[in-house]
């Protein structure tokens, strides 16, 4: 008996949730704070429950999310809650006001600054066989050649060993790339179907300039190929996966092709980028909250790539993409790059 009535109750509640979702997607989205009153409490809970029926993480952050304040410690009596429940959205979640949003952002900043993900990704790469030994083992060079290249490098105090091997042994740049791909156990990528303008929308120009990264193409709307000239960049690959929702495949591109590709990429139009430097991560969180309060984006994400915190905001639904979260044009998307603890 109790089972049956419980079940009936569940069905009724599910129906209510479906209605609520429909209302949330199609209906008006005015939010009237009636803190403490019974109906408000109920609808907040239901909104949260409704969210549980959606496949988390499978939903595009550009879809209108089902809104209850995502801050678990929300005390909905804050002054000046936002009227719209569609914006601002940070990492797929809506908060009722700048204060609650600040809590969500601080969590994200903590996650990014802990650096667990990136250091874990980098750790297995620590003990590499030196490139010269890789080439020796492949029979591409001899012991005396390797010795001469190492001596040359040591005496001059400059140049990578790959460059010295090219000079001393007449190895081609392609052979050096092959050696590096064995050393790093990663594929050699081709520069075919490289579309610079589309790739310029993947990440800020500064990252291309500073980190020797070249997004090459998106395959099957799912995989982003990311090239480097001499070693894969795990931190960048991880950050880009979080930002784009694409699987990032890192690989090497021969030096000459890389240089040409980078030149073409840098000549393309990038998303407008603002730079800010903040003292510490608490200040970073407040700045991001202020930016989102100001821009009211329909989607936004924060990732860290090396020392930079990168905030991307999508201002309108028209920015929806065909491949993950990579924008289609430079319009209505903004990037902010933060440096934390920089010297003033
Ligand atoms: Zn709240």
Strand content: 5-15%
- Indicate how many domains the architecture comprises: 4
Question: What is the global morphology?
Answer: elongated
Strand order of the largest sheet: 6-9-8-7
Strand segment count: 9
Rg value: 25 Å
What structural category arises from helix and sheet content? alpha/beta
Termini separation comes to 70 Å
- Runs in which pLDDT lies below 50 for 5 or more consecutive residues are 1-66
Number of DSSP helices?
13
Helix content: 40-55%
The succession of helices and strands, N to C, reads HHEEHHHHHHHHEEHEHEHEEE
Bound molecules: zinc ion
Would you write up a description of this structure?
The chain is of the alpha/beta class. The strands form three sheets. Strands 6-9-8-7 form a four-stranded mixed sheet. It has a three-stranded mixed sheet with strand order 3-4-5. Strands 1-2 form a two-stranded antiparallel sheet. It has four domains: 2-114, no CATH class; 131-184; 187-266, 2-Layer Sandwich (GMP Synthetase, Chain A, domain 3), CATH 3.30.300.160; 273-340, no CATH class. It is built from 13 helices and nine strands. Helix 3 (98-114) crosses helix 13 and helix 4 (116-122) crosses helix 11 (234-244). The longest helix is centred in the first third of the chain and has 25 residues, at 2-26. Bound molecules: zinc ion.
Features:
344 residues, alpha/beta, GMP Synthetase, Chain A, domain 3, 4 domains, 3-stranded mixed beta sheet, 13 helices, binds zinc ion
In short:
This protein is of the alpha/beta class and 344 residues long.
